[in-house]
């Protein structure tokens, strides 16, 4: 496995500055944020380390040369919107930009995009599966023609009241993965596997690795800490952030030895990117850099 991080934690850095940090800290890869330039609609969104709207041949050559010189690979181009948004204009903009990110990934020779399926949060799972059949086939055909694989992160995007009810990403559980992958009927759609989201949903995060081993295209290393005393007070129907919080690897409830061992069992040797969303490490640039150092040092127990 190649150890990296998700670049969204460095929102104010240029591509080159972000790659310098990755290189200086000894990371092997980065998952590069490719949102449209502009204001972020939520935390960790709106970060643009590669602007796919300004991707000239000269810029492509510059990005690839910088990556080679720093000995840091680009694991994927990352864009996590809601392509099935109930707001039709938001849906249109998300899909339009996602297609550009797919094209950019092909042009750069990365051939991987990490993203969300999306969800109309006012509709049922069954209704959203029908919406997936309507909206995603053209996206998948576009990716197939470009030779790009799409790895869907299993984050429910259900944390607070603005994402309630339902959340903003359908691709949340093994049962739904089976349905979506069957409906998609293509080898280019797979999983960006993040065990942390399964912790608070009370889902086994090890067994699905074996079932879906051929569909795991990319993995995240992020932790979640559950607070049992808070859960007893509010119950599972509360906003999830009322009883859990994202943490650095090793600071939460994921058994990382067991998780990485299972990845080795299934022969996964791809990209593994640390995703920092720990509020305890967001107050300064020093804290952010510390989070990347601490996470790398911890995960190197398991990934060399």
TrEMBL record:
Gene3D superfamilies: Divalent-metal-dependent TIM barrel enzymes. The keyword Manganese does not apply. Keywords: Isomerase. It comes from the Bacteria. InterPro entries: IolE/XylAMocC-like (IPR050312), Xyl_isomerase-like_sf (IPR036237), Xyl_isomerase-like_TIM-brl (IPR013022). One of its GO terms (molecular function) is isomerase activity. Pfam families: AP_endonuc_2 (PF01261). Residues 20-296 form the Xylose isomerase-like TIM barrel domain. This is Sugar phosphate isomerase/epimerase.
């Amino acid at each position: 496995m190649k150890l990296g991080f998700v670049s969204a934690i460095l929102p104010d850095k240029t591509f080159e500055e972000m790659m310098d940090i990755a290189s200086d800290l000894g990371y092997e890869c980065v998952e590069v944020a490719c949102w449209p330039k502009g204001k972020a609609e939520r935390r960790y969104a709106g970060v643009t380390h590669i602007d796919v709207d300004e991707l000239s041949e000269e810029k492509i050559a510059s990005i690839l040369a910088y990556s080679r010189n720093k000995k840091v690979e680009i694991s994927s181009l990352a864009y996590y919107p809601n392509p099935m948004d109930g707001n039709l204009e938001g849906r249109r903009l998300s899909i339009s930009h996602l297609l550009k990110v797919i094209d950019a990934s092909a042009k750069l020779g990365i051939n991987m995009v990490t993203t969300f399926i999306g969800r109309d949060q006012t509709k049922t799972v069954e209704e959203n599966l029908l919406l997936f059949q309507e909206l995603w086939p053209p996206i998948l055909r576009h990716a197939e023609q470009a030779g790009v694989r799409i790895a869907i992160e299993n984050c429910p995007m259900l944390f607070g009241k603005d994402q309630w009810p339902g959340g903003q990403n359908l691709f949340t559980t093994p049962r739904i993965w089976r349905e979506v992958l069957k409906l998609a009927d293509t080898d280019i759609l797979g999983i960006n596997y993040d065990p942390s989201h399964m912790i608070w949903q009370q889902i086994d995060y090890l067994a699905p690795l074996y079932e879906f081993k051929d569909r795991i295209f990319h993995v995240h290393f992020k932790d979640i800490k559950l607070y049992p005393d808070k859960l007893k007070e509010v119950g599972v129907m509360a906003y999830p952030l009322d009883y859990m919080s994202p943490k650095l690897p090793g600071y939460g409830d994921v058994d990382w030895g067991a998780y990485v061992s299972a990845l080795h069992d299934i022969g996964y040797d791809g990209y593994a990117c640390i995703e920092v969303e720990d509020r305890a490490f967001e107050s300064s640039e020093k804290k952010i850099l510390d989070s990347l150092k601490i996470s790398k040092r911890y995960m190197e127990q398991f990934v060399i």
